[in-house]
Design a protein that fits this description.
19 helices; 6-stranded mixed sheet; 651 residues; alpha/beta
Amino acid sequence: MISLFNVSKSFGQRALFSELTFQFSAKDRIALIGPNGAGKTTLLDIISGEITPDTGEVVSAKSVRIGYLTQEIINLRGKTILEEVLSGSKALDKIETEMKAINTQIETATDQDQKSALGLRYAALQGEFEHMGGYELSSRAEKILGGLGFQQADLRRNTEQLSGGWLMRVALAKLLLSQPDIILLDEPTNHLDLASLIWLEGFLKEYPGGILMISHDRAFINALANRIFEIDRGKLIFYTGNYDRYEVTKAETAIVEKATFENQQKKIEQTQQFIDRFRAKATKARQAQSRVKQLEKMEITAPPPPKNKHVRFVFPQPERCSREVITLQNVSKSYGEKKIFQSLDLVLERGEKVALVGPNGAGKSTLIKMLAGTISLDTGKRTIGNQVETAYFSQHQLETLTPENSLLQEIESASPQSPQTFLRGILGAFLFQGDDVFKKVSVLSGGEKSRLALAKLLVRPANLIMLDEPTNHLDIPSREVLSRALQDYTGTLCMITHDRHLIREAANTIIEIDNGKVTRYTGNYDHYCYKKEQSIDQTARGREASAPSQKTDANDSKAKRRQEAESRNESYRARKPLKGKIDKIEKAIETKTKSYQDCLQLLSDPEVYQDKDRFHEIMTRHNQLKKEIDEETALWETLSLEYEALLSDQN
């Protein structure tokens, strides 16, 4: 669908990449990875047509529609949330506008031939509008918005009332509803909570078009990607499979490349030694000259590239503290009329590593702020254990950095008594080395600011670390380092993150927050998911049967079993003809739906409209089939409900 040929791009003297050539289609799910500043976003900008390459070209079929979600905060104004999302379907808007215009022309037209021609055009547009799902557009928009965390009551709100993160969700919903052939996504999970992220993952798994995405979420890439494109030192390297497979393949390739280079270097050294030793000897001159020619013809293997620098740190291990690290007793918290928590009791114990999960707006950030002591309690008490030191990384930690400060001044503000050598050592572990420590905070990228904010946590040991979305703006290698550091940390941890890989690796307790209710699950994230699935299955089956009654004698048991068997047989006799009817209707609907699609296919052919009789024949067939499909679908639904009721009665 889209092909890139020898694409290069530079900014000033800095070359991002050169002569990139690849193509991708609707079957591809590609994750574009590489270190910050490698040019990933620039490449998406080039594919979308936002910017032009210095050399090379991007070629795509004229009919291909590309949708692009950028990282930039979207400024959407003048519409409600639902109206804004619906406005993204430009093709349907165009058809609907033309249909309205034609309808007006038909009402005012006096010439019968003109009316007939307008009617033909209207019918063709109506068929195309229906085929593209125009009549279900609003319900699909509401479903997508619901999946991304919007409540039904939100949909009539004006977009001006939304924060940047929620505006990004609106932009994402608008993109998904428009159903482009190719979707370009630049960090789509940054502004999503865990529930919305999981929904988006499921939606994209079923998406019929191609996907090219930049993401630092390992679990998200693993679930979706079938190819990995890595930008490394200006070149594009292709891998098949997801991120886990990429890591294995890259490690294997690095071993082979290193061995190949070392073996060749050893051979070159041995050959050169032979040449140097025997070149002057008449009896060996011919062999020496032959070795010289071998060296000249040898294709020299490039040395393995140096490893990229990665953040390296460990959290300072704290002193032992009391078993109960922090306690909330009978705590209540509200914002205006909205009650978040009432009579909440919670204890975090030494060594617990807790991940807070739950839907957006449930109160996760409120809870961690109450634990951190950054917001007041309406009622109740917060108690810190003996010898407990706390450290808190807020979701908006980057905004608390002072832009005018140098990096060194910023970290000094967290620990004025610490020697500069110690502070520079911490900055160095986060890749701020040499004169970098004198840079102003204002010139840092989002990822660099996140690293600086995390570095400030390391200045002093803490028994209780609280992290609210610490992985935002961090690349995957930095997230891996954070994950390992949290695994090795011996204190108590409480975190909010939508990075499921981090939760799996670091958490040993999951606390779910929903509608003010706090439920603790002891165990890792997979155990939590298992327990949730069990709960959902139980709910779907209905309440469990009540406790078994007292034992009856053998005769009563036999009679009961006989009665149950007769009841099952009677239910089966009642269900059998009903099941036959349902199967028959399903086959009829399937056959008629195929014929209906054939009619739509014919109506998409411009030549059909040249033959009025043929057109009317197809339109009559189209309308009749649609009517019959609707009627039989309604009958199928009624019979299916009857069938399900009989099954329920049996159970």
